[in-house]
Amino acid sequence: MDRFQAMQVFTRVVDANSFSRAADSLGLPRATVTTTIQNLEKLLQVRLLNRSTRRLSLTPDGASYYERCVRILADVEETEASLRHAASSPRGRLRVDVPASIGRQVLLPRLCEFHHRYPDVELVIGMTDRPVDMVADAVDCAIRKGELEDSSLVARRIGLVPCVTCASPEYLQCYGTPRTLDDLSQHYAVNYFLANDKVCPWDFMVDGEPVEIKGNSVVSVNDADAYVACGLQGFGLIQAPRYMVLPHLESGALREVLPQWQPAPMPLSVVYLHNRHLSPKVRAFVDWVVELFSNCPLLTGCSVESECSFAKASAEGARAGGGQTRELEGVF
User: Per its UniProt record, what PROSITE patterns does this chain match (predicted)?
Assistant: First the structure.
C-alpha cells in the first residue's frame, strides 16, 4: 500500500466528511477510497473513523493520526512547490469567494489591475453574503467579514471597515430622529439575519465598549443590497458599512443618526485552509488584496469622488507598471 497516498485519501475524507465527496475531489472511485481507508486501519491496527449512514467522526486515534498527516503532507507539498515554482510566475485557476457588496464595489472595479500583474491566473469569483464551505466548494481563499470563529482557517486581517447608523428622511419624518440609545426602543430596525437565522442586533460603542441593542422590526433580509434597499424605502434604521451607503448619504437619500455612538468597525480578513499550502497564485492574490484594501479610500469612508480618482490613478499605474508587483512585508 502506498502510505503517502493513503494519508492523502484519509485527510481528504476527513476534510470533506464524506467518502463520496473525497473520491470526487481526488478523481478516484468511491470503492478505492473505502478500500484505502480499510487497508490503512488494518495496517495501523486501529479504527480511524466511526461510520454511520449519516455522518463520519474521528476516533481519538484517528484525530491524532489526522493532525500528523496534515503536517506531513503540508511539509511535503510546501517543499515540492517551493522548488517547482521558484522561477515561475503565478498561474492556474484560482477560486475565491467574497461578500457580494465588497465584490461589486471594491474588487471588481480594480480587477483589471490584478489581471495586468498576473495574466496567467484564471480567476473564478463567487460573490455571496453566506460563507461557503471552502473544502466542499474547492475555494482557494476567501474574504470574510466580522470576527472569525472557524479554527480550520488561517486568517490575515486586511482592514477595519467603519459602519454607520442611518435611515431615510421619510422614516425620520414619520418616527422622529433618535437622540439617545434609549430612544431606539421607539424605533424600527431593518433586521439582517445570518445563515443560522440569527439576527444581527444594533451595535454601538459606548465608552470604548460595544453595546448591543435589539430593535423592533417589520422586515428581515439576508442580503446586503436588500438590506440597504429596505432602509432607503423607509422600513427602519439600518447599520451598514459606510462604503455601501456613502452615495446615499451624500445624495441625502439616507441620513446618519446617533453619530456620537458609532458602531464598532467591521473586521475584514482574507482566509484560507490551514492544511493547504499557500501556492504562488494564492499568495499573489492575497498580497494584492492586502495592498488594495489598505489604499482604498471608499473603505475608510472617504467620498465617492476620492474613490473614483484613486481607481483611475491605480488603473493608469497598472498599465504603466507592466505587470510588476511589490513585496508586502508580513503578509503571512
Answer: HTH_LYSR
